[in-house]
Amino acid sequence: MSQPSHLPYGGIATFARALAVQPDGDWRAFAAVLGIPYDIALGFRPGARFAPRALREASLRYTPPFSGLDGRVRLDPAQSPDPLIVDAGDVILPSLEPELARGRITQAARQVKARCRVPVFLGGDHSVTYPLLRAFHDIPELHVIQLDAHLDFTDTRNDTRYSNSSPFRRACEDLPNLVHITTFGLRGLRFDAEAVAAARARGHTLVPMEQVESQFQTLLESMPAHRPVYLSIDVDAFDPAVLPGTSSPEPDGLTYALTMRLIREVVRRHQVVALDVVELAPNLDPTGRSELLAARLIMETLAEVFGTGAHHAGA
Amino acid sequence: MSQPSHLPYGGIATFARALAVQPDGDWRAFAAVLGIPYDIALGFRPGARFAPRALREASLRYTPPFSGLDGRVRLDPAQSPDPLIVDAGDVILPSLEPELARGRITQAARQVKARCRVPVFLGGDHSVTYPLLRAFHDIPELHVIQLDAHLDFTDTRNDTRYSNSSPFRRACEDLPNLVHITTFGLRGLRFDAEAVAAARARGHTLVPMEQVESQFQTLLESMPAHRPVYLSIDVDAFDPAVLPGTSSPEPDGLTYALTMRLIREVVRRHQVVALDVVELAPNLDPTGRSELLAARLIMETLAEVFGTGAHHAGA
Amino acid sequence: MSQPSHLPYGGIATFARALAVQPDGDWRAFAAVLGIPYDIALGFRPGARFAPRALREASLRYTPPFSGLDGRVRLDPAQSPDPLIVDAGDVILPSLEPELARGRITQAARQVKARCRVPVFLGGDHSVTYPLLRAFHDIPELHVIQLDAHLDFTDTRNDTRYSNSSPFRRACEDLPNLVHITTFGLRGLRFDAEAVAAARARGHTLVPMEQVESQFQTLLESMPAHRPVYLSIDVDAFDPAVLPGTSSPEPDGLTYALTMRLIREVVRRHQVVALDVVELAPNLDPTGRSELLAARLIMETLAEVFGTGAHHAGA
Amino acid sequence: MSQPSHLPYGGIATFARALAVQPDGDWRAFAAVLGIPYDIALGFRPGARFAPRALREASLRYTPPFSGLDGRVRLDPAQSPDPLIVDAGDVILPSLEPELARGRITQAARQVKARCRVPVFLGGDHSVTYPLLRAFHDIPELHVIQLDAHLDFTDTRNDTRYSNSSPFRRACEDLPNLVHITTFGLRGLRFDAEAVAAARARGHTLVPMEQVESQFQTLLESMPAHRPVYLSIDVDAFDPAVLPGTSSPEPDGLTYALTMRLIREVVRRHQVVALDVVELAPNLDPTGRSELLAARLIMETLAEVFGTGAHHAGA
Amino acid sequence: MSQPSHLPYGGIATFARALAVQPDGDWRAFAAVLGIPYDIALGFRPGARFAPRALREASLRYTPPFSGLDGRVRLDPAQSPDPLIVDAGDVILPSLEPELARGRITQAARQVKARCRVPVFLGGDHSVTYPLLRAFHDIPELHVIQLDAHLDFTDTRNDTRYSNSSPFRRACEDLPNLVHITTFGLRGLRFDAEAVAAARARGHTLVPMEQVESQFQTLLESMPAHRPVYLSIDVDAFDPAVLPGTSSPEPDGLTYALTMRLIREVVRRHQVVALDVVELAPNLDPTGRSELLAARLIMETLAEVFGTGAHHAGA
Amino acid sequence: MSQPSHLPYGGIATFARALAVQPDGDWRAFAAVLGIPYDIALGFRPGARFAPRALREASLRYTPPFSGLDGRVRLDPAQSPDPLIVDAGDVILPSLEPELARGRITQAARQVKARCRVPVFLGGDHSVTYPLLRAFHDIPELHVIQLDAHLDFTDTRNDTRYSNSSPFRRACEDLPNLVHITTFGLRGLRFDAEAVAAARARGHTLVPMEQVESQFQTLLESMPAHRPVYLSIDVDAFDPAVLPGTSSPEPDGLTYALTMRLIREVVRRHQVVALDVVELAPNLDPTGRSELLAARLIMETLAEVFGTGAHHAGA
User: Coil, helix or strand for C233?
Assistant: First the structure.
């Protein structure tokens, strides 16, 4: 008989029951989780500060080893020389002082990035992607693939340049190596015309929601193969019926299945250098399914990257 | 830099930050919002009385000017000689005394109708559509397009003739000019056979949910062009996954996208003389997405009617 | 005018306002409801103990007689010589003492089964299906059709052989007459490879979610016609957007419409000897739509079996 | 060992597991429960329509026989020749048509009153006390003892004379035998000066919250002994911390202990001819403690009246 | 009969149905409400950004004119030459950029202060009291009376000097006229020893919760009479049973009654120059009683200040 | 400036940010926390399985070092040679198999007890106190002080001898060294007369709620001084207004202040050998104040025991 193990609600909640480490500690791992419980840059309903802890708890339903029906999705720590996943805890953040916060986020991200193959960043609102991307300034020809209902390329919103509407604008200004952004899932009434024009002027690819399914394969193929990709998943890309726990939901979004097909294609063709999952507000979904879905998305993405996912099995 | 403006949770909540007016005041506008916080005529879970205020708050995420990605949906007050929208507040209603309530609803609706091109009525349960329609007794050959899971054409339910199951029956009895009703989205176990027969005897068009997508275009084309249409949207027409905050949800309903395609077609072919949105019960949806979706529906419909919506752009 | 009758929130809540009886009383009926408020065998979020009462309350929106639009789904007590439905109450269960609980469940199920054509069992977690199936040990060549995201065929989980992961494993060990299980809707990351292999070794049919729609008809036709079928519906087979109130939701599940198409086909080709609905946790869905959907599913299935459902009308 | 019995969440929920009867059936009992799921006469937050069912469910934690520590509060069906309690179900009510509703309430109350010693009426909003009191028109020199934050003696509110602000005004107009009302627990900012004056002109006793504890004994002694008393308990008399589930909470209200001391004194000195519990809105208290407290209040009051309560034991 | 008027859930929600004005408009009033929907300076559970709107809605249950039982608390607009209350809306705030936010708060507070006798500031978290107090730099010998579980006099917390732990420290540094602070209701485990010492070194009066009742009268009398008092009410001063909707509740706090006795004594002896109510998080209390209590507190305080409250009536 | 540190919602949640250890690891500490996420032995509303994790999260608002106002309650890790607190995680429990679960609980409790001075056990329902007490079989003349609304001394309930109604009955049968139990806070309608008699026959002290305040000092003094005391706190001892998150609330319970006065007296006169906190159901209290209060209770009790609490300071 196997060893006794905890049910999902039992035990101290590190991500997927991984070893807890310090970002700057003495460790190596395939993947490392880092939380950024920061949500003061959003402009509507707060709560993303609670996401890292909620994701840790939800992840306990998906602790490896696991394998899907017919073994199409598998993740088995025994196959990894280094630890498969470690949990680097959360960045220590001030409640105010945004610039200090951004500095700490960048620093911790750099430390984690130096010690693992795939850092997994748990936001926080989408503003954190800017300081996170700064940790990847040394990767030549970095691509960003963004899943999002909104463009987040606005220059200034409500008198601030660092809100969750602007992370990619700031990143493009700072990081010459950030050559291209593809955004999947755009929809809704409100678009900043200047931002749309600026993104297009830089050559970014903007994919409205209704074209995602028909075009994602072609679009990913149009990128030169095997590029380093930072994958930024704003959970409001999902349909709010599927994931209601987010600050600014927009109807008619992604299903989980389509999202995973897209991610599998990204993994198959390119090299995912990091993953962030942002804008999850667990306090806005009393059914708890929002964090469960986001946690599963992370685990399934890791399985794909680790090499035992569906696309390796000929699916 | 643009003027400072409120985030959606800031400021006194008039609809879309419109000017607050009295229904019988000295104003003109393209559209005017009138709330009817009345829900004692429904037979299950109350809460629609809270809808007008919830819709005002949710509308603040969609204040014009706005434009969708690629400008397909646009609404810009600067292009309107009159104010684009005013908020005429709510009808003052007694908590009992249904007949008195109906009288006040009709009176306020008449006042608002006389001052704008498109009145937008915020229910309230669906019983309010009967006194609202009475304000349109003077429009020759009025058509109603109803989005609804239920027919609402029952003669008597639980000993009352004025419940939210009967508004269209009463309206057809009172209003000789109401020539035709098309109902989209019908589904569920419970239909009043007498009501179905009576509606068909009058020549109404009953479209079950599973036929909406395949047939709405044909059906709208089968109407003579450019008819005056009163558009009545019972939010239980939506799939409960998309909009759970309603008294009597029925599975397998409309998506937001299909609904807007249908509404765009109505606007393209006919003349929308008024819009009501009823049966929203914000207290039944702690995620808040129900009122956000209904508020966006109103704004996007106004954009279509105002002439800058997707169907004008060749979409 | 018809007799006064209760609105759904009025009156003592027996299932569909049926007569309350004892499981071993002196009665006969077409269908009989038996609740099993037992949820200590699940491994995540409790609450299924509240499901029988929640289903009784929700059922009051669907009390017969009813008929769908165009009479496609009908249930009319007047057409039944015996009572159409009785409510046999709940099995009296200890809060601990699992073996005693299983014994009582089997005994009450036998009593109910002896007195009606279609027992309807309201779980409880899925572990109750094992003692329920024991009441059907006397039916030659019994088939089970299971709607479920999970296989529930695990030998041992967290040190117990009787959890909600194992009911069908135990049943197959005990019941030689249980010849075959078809499971529709399987999905998710975690499958017990031993359980999958064991189920296949017995010849069971495992249908992943993404193949349900394309294959259910063929699969049901591949069974010899008119077999006795025990229909076990774990509500986590549904998409969590459609039914969020369940312990262990998995994204990308069944819609209500597809589920009813599948059930209609089962009824059309085979003989449903019993129905259970398990894993509903009403406390996890504050919108209330989960129990409403599950109650409607039961009523619509009964209408199909009783002979006035859609498949009899040539739909 | 005792007979197996249900845990509180098990079984069909009649009040305290009492026999279900019709109001006009062939039965006799010490106490009979009658629900009035009616809440369209209130002016703020609805939900009292759900109270009768919630009270039935909560009552299952307090099913007799029971006895408190040291036997001070006891209720034992074995000591009653007739059934101790029966559950007469709910009055069948239209969702609109207030006058018809009032007629049905009075009729059912008369039927129940004729068959038991202590009817227990489960509101509904406080407007139902007017038609309930009409069933007691034949009791000479009827006294009402009202526990309430509000006076409910207003002539007209928001254009209606039958709202939950007016039941006692209407009753005093109609019932010459209603000689006196004592109201305990009054507090808050809003009092209708005309109503206060009218109540005092009739000689009613108005006891502000802050005087309840010091004066209830004296006040009850000042009434002639052994008077017939109709006890009307608006649950907003309680402190909202103790019972938050009510439409219009007012801070600084009654504790449960003080309420029971007051009720014990009423029972000791007078003859309780009926009890109503109104304005409970279970949907406004997700902790569930509101209905549990109200159900216990009913059971403990019945124990006092039945003769085994604390005041009979010399407490 | 009186004019028809709205039930509390009806109509556009300005505070107490007051006229909406601009902070810098052309108006005069006795009291003016100004909202500050700002909560990014707190260190635990967000939501105070929703408080101004929630307080407006809750205030509609307490619209003047009103008078308590026996006229002890009265507020009657007819007795005021100027408008009694106006609603100056909310300060327009950026979601980040704390310094800019503080500047705007001070500016709007100055504008409002110049136009009314008693500004009422609706927070927001407690950090807003610092920029609010800056608007009172011109009042000689300003006293602050603070109701609060926490001292909020910390120099630096989590790397910021402007959090909701520091408003009074910053104010004392900036405002030479702020001569003294009395804090009522202190309790809990966590006190910053340096802050306690600093407050005492300045001569501030620190009153632990358990001494409030016995000492408030003496303490207020020990102040020289008729001083200008800024009254700052952190709602976590209340017992969490009474007001659960706040970020950082501490057990064993103030009742509403004791709070009003204290406030009445302040009003009787001194001159209230402004009132703020902060740290209300309506999203944390689904029963809605938190905002109802806080709204009533404001109205009752205004009644006392306006001169018709209980202390003027000899209570 | 002090080191950066997490806000309460940041970082991996061990209890009070203590070091995570294994129950049988190589460590020594003053206090050690052990969770028992087990709630299948209760008979009403589940959720106590979620308590250990909720208590860990809530404890982060009370991480030492801290000191109350005036230093009356202090806890400073720097004053402890061993670690002040470690977090030994949760016992690994099966979802069924009660006997196996009890064995594992006893074993882990023994391991923890051997390594620290004060084990702190986080339930789970109250049934876990029986296996916990078995770990203290070696302490001569063990006393239990129980805070509880219920006696929990029932022989058999609903056919089981191991439910949360029986832990102390089982413990007294098994542990000859358990010489006496004092239960504070008893109240409610339902007492098992046989259990009351049996407890009294053993000489236990039963203190009804209404006598706690007047008698706790006398009662604790009546015990011989300096006895080993196991302190078992069922959170339903608290008033439900103060702590609503529990399965079976009973009105009129303990305040936090009275509870701490009682605990301080216990600590002052006796030797606390362990502490358990049981029956917390965080899922039943959406305001979150229940777990915050229970976490603070634990921290404040530890401060008292550690020697820097209020009673050491002459309070």
Answer: strand
C 91-130: CB under 8 A from F? 93-98, 100, 127
pLDDT of residue B94: 87
CATH superfamily of the F15-313 domain: Ureohydrolase domain (3.40.800.10)
Could you give the C-alpha distances from E115 to E32, E83, E105, in angstroms and in order?
A: 8, 11, 16
pTM of the model: 0.97
Name the token pair of E159. Answer: 């790397």
Count the neighbouring beta carbons within 10 Å of the beta carbon of residue C315. Answer: 12
> What is d(CA F278, CA F294) in angstroms, rounded to the nearest whole number?
10
Q: Which CA distances in Å does B311 have to B78, B144, B270, B303, B314? A: 20, 21, 13, 10, 5
pLDDT of residue E313: 47
**Interchain pair D40, B43: CB under 8 A:** no
Write out chain B residues lying below 8 Å of E1, CB-based: none
Query: Which one is predicted more confidently, B156 or D223?
Result: B156
Distance CA(E148)–CA(E235), nearest Å, equals 7
Query: Which chain D residue shows the shortest CA-CA distance from E241?
Result: D241
| DSSP code for F160 | B
Cβ-Cβ contacts under 8 Å between B and E: the total is: 72
ipTM: 0.97
Nearest CA in chain F to D60: F44
Q: Is the pLDDT of residue C310 over 70?
A: no
**Which of chain B's residues have a Cβ under 8 Å away from the Cβ of E285?**
none
Could you tell me the residue ranges of all domains in chain A? 16-313
**CB neighbours of D126 closer than 8 A, spacing ≥ 6?**
D41, D42, D148, D152, D164, D167, D232, D234, D278, D279
Q: Which residue from A189, A177, A175 is spatially nearest to A250, judged by alpha carbons?
A: A189
Contacts of E95 in chain A (CB under 8 A): 40-43, 157-158, 160, 163
Tokens matching residue F107: 């074993």
Q: Write out residues 242-281 of A within 8 Å (CB-CB) of B.
A: 244-245, 248-249, 251-252
pLDDT at position F310 is 64
Measured CA to CA, the distance from residue E276 to residue E295 in angstroms comes to: 12
The chain F residue lying nearest C99, using CA atoms, is F97
Pick the CATH number of B23-313 from 3.40.800.10, 1.10.3470.10, 3.30.70.260, 3.40.50.300: 3.40.800.10
* CB contact F163 to C (< 8 Å): yes
CB contact under 8 A, D100 and B159: yes
Q: How far apart are CA A100 and CA C140, in angstroms?
A: 73
Q: What is the DSSP code (8-state) at residue D85?
A: E
Residue of F nearest to D255 (CA): F252
Q: Count A/C contacts: CB-CB distance under 8 Å.
A: 76
The CATH class, in words, for D15-310 is: alpha beta
Chain E partners (3+ C-beta pairs within 8 A): A, B, D, F
Question: Which CATH number among 3.10.310.10, 3.40.50.2300, 3.40.30.10, 3.40.800.10 corresponds to the domain C18-313?
Answer: 3.40.800.10
Q: Please give the helix or strand (H or E) that residue B232 lies within, else none.
A: strand B228-234
Q: What is the mean pLDDT of residues E50-72?
A: 93
- Hey, of C95, C128, C156, which one would you mutate to test binding to chain F, going by the most F CBs within 10 A of its CB? C95
Domain E23-310 -> CATH class: alpha beta
**What is the residue-averaged pLDDT of chain B?**
95
Name the 3-class secondary structure at F39: coil
Cβ of D285 under 8 Å from any chain E Cβ? Answer: yes
According to CATH, the superfamily of the domain at A16-313 is: Ureohydrolase domain (3.40.800.10)
Smallest CA-to-CA distance from C158 within F37, F49, F95, F50 is with: F95
Question: Is pLDDT above 80 for D10?
Answer: yes
**For B72-117, how does the pLDDT look when each residue is reduced to its tens digit (9 = 90+)?**
789 988 888 889 999 999 999 987 899 999 999 999 999 999 999 9
Lowest-pLDDT range of A213-222, D287-296, E24-33: A213-222
